[in-house]
């Protein structure tokens, strides 16, 4: 089987890594079920319009998916199954986020009612207050719940200082991460799915250990350099005529200077005899 980015040995290692992850996670299984159970119970007791899902963390999770997973999924021309929790349709905030128009640093506009806001936090509040009827807050649509697996802390703008690695939490995240790989890229669904399954384990799941051997996103992400190069090209095009203008003016001044120097000796020469 061909593996991602020319690493043939990684496919051989996969079963061992998966097994190690399972061993780690065995102890924390109980905790996951308890946590999930309490969440459902909590939700059913609440008013239907109250949303217990962090918009900010969901955004960070989406950013991780969009930047470090989707370029590879697109390259394989693979379609995520609708039951996959990474699918855009399973993010309750996706529709609102896509109706967020960012005009300028300090100008955000609501795509539903065209109201303007000075900062993202105000438009977020507006969405919560005015357009919350658009949220489908059904179970399994909170992307923030996947943050543990997706390394959201790395994609959030204001990172918290790194706390000490918690082995139980790492095992929980590893298990969640593997279940995402299994649901989104079932290995029996063809070559693309099995390649992406392998890729997902390397890109997101391997780093859920406390030994610090592997870093998240080792395969890289969406190319961010395009914008930078575009800006650099525009700047060069703007500065080039300015540079030639300065050179031209400088040379003209130099020529004038030489002409003046040529005249000076004559006047000096004339003055001397008198
Ligand atoms: Zn609005």
Automatic annotation (TrEMBL):
Q: Does the keyword Membrane apply?
A: yes
Repeat recorded as keyword: no
Q: Which PANTHER family match?
A: RE51073P, ZINC FINGER PROTEIN-RELATED
Keywords from the UniProt entry: Membrane, Signal, Transmembrane, Transmembrane helix
InterPro entries found in the cross-reference section: Znf_C2H2_type
Residue stretches making up the C2H2-type domain: 110-131
- Which domain of life, per UniProt? Eukaryota
This protein's gene is called LOC100823211
Which residues are listed as membrane-spanning? 228-249
Q: What name is this protein filed under?
A: C2H2-type domain-containing protein
Secretion signal span: 1-27
Organism of derivation: Brachypodium distachyon
